[in-house]
Amino acid sequence: MRFLRDENRDGLFVDINPLLAEVIRQIPTAADPEDNEAAGGRLFPAPGPANSEMTADWREYVKPGLAEQFEEARSLVEKDLEDGFEQKEGGESFRLRVPLAHTDAWLNGLNQARLVLAAKHDFSDGELTDELPPELTCQREFALYQIAIYGWMQELLLTTMEE
Amino acid sequence: MADTLIEEKTSTAESVEPPWNVVVHNDPINLMTYVTMVLQRVLGFSRDRAKKHMLEVHKKGRSVVWMGSREKGELLVQQLHGFLLLATLEKG
After folding, report:
1. What residue ranges do the domains of chain A occupy?
2. Which of B28, B31, B89 sits opposite A125 (nearest CB)?
3. Whether B84 and A43 lie within 8 Å, measured CB to CB
4. Which end of chain B is more exposed for a tag (fewer CB within 10 A), N or C?
């Protein structure tokens, strides 16, 4: 996979192989904390001590707005995956267009996915920084690949923003 | 001699609000480049200053990125949470 920016500064992920395309399609699902307490807790961390008045106010007044903001980012990512993902004619590789105006939503959506996956699988700092497992034998190992791939996409989006 | 009005300003412990600190905490998931970008955007830091704080977070586990009133601090923490950084507001 490579990343380019076109004349409008829209982002283009190109030469995406079918396996990678499938991993990318799973971003919205991966970003959904469902009912997982650890994942929800990571998306909405307390601003202070758990039992403080500040944190209680936060839950009541700030969390709903953040939830809406995160949902909007996920929806835009989902829309781009529906509208901007295309298979190269006559080939097996795919390309994905990320409009410049959606860059922040993508950075946020990719981050949500990485944080939720890490929280759901309770990865240690070591697991997250070690080399990836050589073989995929379970969902937990697959999640490590997802975190790495989504991080790679974030990095590509970030490093080309200021060019 | 003309009367002189002396205005005496006094302050008490109740009237002076202690400063609050906005603290960013380490997180093994958030990319260094991403944290740097967020600190630039939310706090208006230069790239160098943002990098310095990002490295402090990375090496020491936390960095005080702002000090001031509680109201403004709450707003900044909310913005940092919007970017999914781990941030807290602490009494200085």
Report:
1. 2-161
2. B28
3. yes
4. N
pTM of this structure: 0.89
Q: In the prediction, which pLDDT does B92 show?
A: 84
Nearest CA in chain B to A156: B33
Q: Using the beta-carbon criterion (under 8 Å), do B34 and A154 form an inter-chain contact?
A: yes
Confirm if B75 and B81 have CB atoms less than 8 A apart.
no
Indicate the pLDDT class of residue B4, thresholds 50, 70 and 90.
low
Q: Are B78 and A62 an interchain contact pair (Cβ–Cβ within 8 Å)?
A: yes
Question: What are the chain A neighbours of B90 within 8 Å (beta carbons)?
Answer: 48
A94-151 residue pLDDT tens: 999 999 999 999 999 999 999 999 999 999 888 888 888 888 788 889 999 999 999 9
| Domain interval for residue B46 | 28-91
**Percent of chain A beyond pLDDT 90?**
77
| Residue B52 resides in a domain | yes
A110 neighbourhood in chain B, CB within 8 Å: none
Would you call A44 and B28 a contact, using CB atoms and an 8 Å cutoff? no
| C-alpha distance from residue A151 to each of A8, A137, B30 (Å) | 24, 21, 9
Chain A: which residues have CB within 8 Å of chain B?
Answer: 43-48, 54, 62, 65-66, 69, 107-108, 111-112, 114-115, 118, 125, 128-129, 147, 151, 154-155, 158-159, 161
In a domain, B14, yes or no: no
Q: How many CB atoms lie within 10 A of CB A143?
A: 20
Residues 6+ apart with CB under 8 A from B12: none
Torsion of CA A107, A114, B37, A2, to 10 degrees: -60
List pLDDT tens digits, range A23-77: 999 999 999 999 999 999 999 999 999 889 999 999 999 999 999 999 999 999 9
